Amino acid sequence: MRTFSWQSTLPFPAGEVFAWHARPGAFERLSPPWRDVQVLRSSGSIAQGAEVMLRLGLLGPFGIQWLLRHGEYAQGELFTDEQVRGPFGAWRHSHSFTAAPSGHCLMTDEIQYRLPLLARPLSGIFERDLARLFAFRHRVLAADLALHGRWSLAPRKTILISGASGFIGSALSAFLSTAGHTVLHLVRRKPRAPHERSWSPGEGSLLPEALHGADVVVHLGGESIMANRWSPSVRERLVQSRVGSTQLLASTIAALPQKPELLIVASGVGFYGDTGSEAPDEEAPKGAGFLADLAAQWEAAAAPAADSGVRVASLRIGTVLNARGGALKKMLPPFRLGLGGPLGPGTQRMGWIALQDLLGLIEHVIHTPSLGGAVNAVAPQVITNCEFVQALARRVGRCAFIPAPAPMLRALFGEVADAALLSSSAATPKRALESGYRFVLPAVSPALEFEVP
Questions:
Q1: β-strand 158-162 against 216-219: which pairing, if any?
Q2: Domain match, 309 and 419 both
Q3: Residue 149 to residue 263: CA distance in whole angstroms
Q4: 131 lies in the same domain as 190
Q5: Of 92, 123, 149, which marks where a domain is finished?
Q6: Which residues pair with 388 in a beta bridge?
Q7: Which of 52, 108, 299, 427 has the CA that lies 20 to 30 A from 258?
Q8: Helix axes 232-239, 290-300, angle to 10 degrees
């Protein structure tokens, strides 16, 4: 048996760090973007005897099932998990939490394992991967605890999320769950679990019971802007997936006798159109073009909820940086091959935000009753596409000098190229800053270091 250990001192009480691990969403928050891991079933607990079945992805549709059972357990101090069956000859993972000076926690992950016979010559590579994994896990844990700590005295909420299976929604669901909130999912199919509620926005169907008990509703639905060329039918789908679903949600909320206190609706910095050399704040008028019109309609669709007295916040989200999804996931493979470069001239300015800050900002909006209306969900630093490209190239250790010429982008994407790739989308997070939100990753280089492990 070999032993691997990783330690870090966290500036939080040991009991608080342990409690974070005991809540739903902890495994999902600690799962790195470079690993394809799915939870097939789980007891939903880390207590002795609880089990979790994972699927470890290999190539394409192939994967390995891994059954783990929790063993030794001491509240606030220790829990373990051990392989019942799976890819290892043996596996036992011990998580210990020890009180350290100044109210801090010394957290230790210790793994005793035995590789299969044929894999034992690769043990050095495996341990380097473990080191990368646990550096990522401890970093995310510390960042989440710091954000949650800002609201440790605030009451916990019941939060209903639409689009919870998407890139942002899945991260938000896990993030809010580990903060101690009760998170429910609004799904477009028959519910399969107690935390799921059903609706059918395409058919205009949402029963009031689906919203029962929700303090906060977060609406993240919407077909991808970049998935297809903007034919008339695609434009209609883009509008319906945002405006129609928001209208249905807001009008249903407005008719409830017991309403949620807050509706958060995702919007986009496309509201401002091509911002050129400016970085508009939330008081700037709507810009020109399809994306601006779409964002304006999207936000206006939430009016029935606002008119009924519900606080409504429209998050005008910029490009979200995280290796797990969105534009950055698509960019990473060519950049890692040294094939990256600026889009068109590269002088267009970007409105961007690290996923970690987007999650933190949503939590901030939930706990800040004075914050409603439009909120620019972008980092304070405004950069050009060229500056972003160079920062990403440095992060992956490659050169980035192969541009994507504007004519080629227009040939590939049609008008989407000019609207979403070649125009400036900068904005200023004035309302977030004025309401007291402190960005943890306000500059692009540290953001990429965190979000591209």
A1: parallel
A2: yes
A3: 23
A4: no
A5: 149
A6: none
A7: 299
A8: 30
DSSP string over 69-110: EEEEEETTTEEEEEEEESSSSEEEEEEEEEEEGGGEEEEEEE
Residues 138 and 177 in one domain: no
Q: State which of 149, 166, 199 marks the end of a domain.
A: 149
Is the dihedral angle over the CA atoms 93, 168, 432, 372 positive or is it negative?
negative
CB 364 within 8 A of CB 451: no
Which pairing describes strands 78-85 and 90-100: parallel, antiparallel, or unpaired?
antiparallel
DSSP line for 313-366: EEEEE-EEE-TTSHHHHHHHHHHHTT----BTTS-SEE-EEEHHHHHHHHHHHH
Hey, how many other C-beta atoms are within 10 angstroms of the C-beta on 344? 20
CA–CA distance, 228 with 64 (Å, rounded to integer): 34
Can you give the pTM of this predicted structure? 0.95
Q: Tens digit of pLDDT for each residue in 271-305?
A: 999 999 999 999 999 999 999 999 999 999 999 99
Which CATH number do you get for residue 33?
Answer: 3.30.530.20
Same-domain status, 240 and 134: no
220 and 310 fall within a common domain:
yes
Residues 125 and 257 in one domain: no
For residue 8, the one-letter residue type is: S
**CA-closest candidate to residue 29, choices 176, 190, 212, 197:** 176
pLDDT in tens, 152-196: 999 999 999 999 999 999 999 999 999 999 999 999 999 999 999
CATH number at residue 407: 3.40.50.720
Q: How many H-runs (helices) and E-runs (strands) does the chain carry?
A: 15, 18
Six-digit token string for 293? 């019109």
- 208 and 340 in a single domain? The answer is yes
Structural domain boundaries enclosing 105: 2-149
